[in-house]
Design a protein that fits this description.
This protein is α/β, with parallel strands linked by helices. It has nine helices and six strands, in the order H-H-E-H-E-H-E-H-H-H-E-E-E-H-H. A six-stranded mixed β-sheet has the order 3-2-1-4-6-5. Strand 1, helix 3 and strand 2 form a beta-alpha-beta unit. Helix 2 packs across helix 3 and helix 3 crosses helix 8. The protein is globular, with a radius of gyration of 18 Å. It starts with 19 loop residues before the first helix and ends with a helix.
Length: 263
């Protein structure tokens, strides 16, 4: 691919603007590619030097970070330090950071936990989880993305209806005039493939998985799964919320699904 080997003509503030047919061609090509090959294109061949990995240190993200650092050892890892994480998550983050020599960048919002409670009242995550995610995730993450042209996620299509149409490569406007490339290298992986990779690579995992958690976010908004529940049922229990908001198109699909009348 030569279209992205030279981005010197693109203003850094604007980010890369890819032709729609080129994005379609990339998705056609990568649908049958291994995630490591997709990451190699993005990190080593595309010319998109300002690229970061976003991770909450779940199993999927562990796979992505293992592959990405094999290609670019100093690739920035963006971690949203919300102040509400499980102690186990923070301990595992330190463990994996040491194991893989990760270049982690902690992103924080404008309020500490105490300041948030003083400004918006106690337990905002229960009364208005979307507002809490906006303060602690969406706003600091959006600010951080202005320093990059592309970011990498660990989204899987089969983990949620909101993620069922996730492409492997997409682009969108972060805000008017600021374009981003977003890559989802394991979009077509299953949960089983994630854990098979972890086993093959002898990678550690957050111990909360062993207690029955399927996806792990902030402690107040995450619970263990009950038998037969969907994978993301343990997030924001009691609401229709399944996305924190940093994934633009998936959040839009959440809104559309929430607006549909119940059967």
């Amino acid at each position: 691919m030569t279209e992205l080997t030279d981005l010197s003509h693109v203003e850094a503030a604007a980010g890369p603007r890819l032709a729609e047919d080129f994005v379609r061609a990339l998705n056609d090509r990568f649908e049958a590619s291994e995630p490591h090959d997709i990451l190699r294109w993005l990190l080593d061949e595309s010319g998109l030097k300002r690229t970061a990995v976003a991770s909450s240190f779940q199993a999927e993200g562990t796979c992505i970070m293992d592959m990405a650092t094999d290609i670019r050892p100093d690739v920035p890892i963006l971690f949203l330090e919300t102040g509400f994480h499980f102690a186990e998550t923070l301990a595992f983050k330190e463990q994996l950071t040491e194991r893989l020599c990760l270049n982690v960048i902690d992103l924080v919002g404008d309020y500490t936990v105490e300041q948030q409670a003083a400004q918006f009242g106690e337990r905002l995550y229960e009364r208005d989880p979307a507002a809490c995610c906006g303060i602690n995730k969406v706003e600091p993450f959006t600010r951080a993305l202005h320093n990059f042209d592309a970011w990498i996620t660990a989204l899987r299509r089969d983990s949620s209806p909101t993620r069922g149409q996730t492409p492997i490569v997409e682009q969108y406007e972060l805000e008017p005039g600021k374009w981003m490339v977003k890559a989802n290298p394991i979009a077509n992986w299953s949960r089983r493939e994630v854990w098979q990779y972890m086993k093959e690579r002898d990678l550690p995992h957050n111990p909360l998985y062993d207690l029955g958690y399927a996806t792990i976010g902030c402690a107040p908004c995450t619970r263990m799964l009950f038998t037969g529940e969907d994978e993301r049922a343990g997030r924001w229990d009691g609401s229709q919320k399944v996305e924190c908001g940093i994934h633009k198109h998936e959040t839009e699909r959440q809104t559309a699904l929430s607006a549909q009348p119940a059967d």
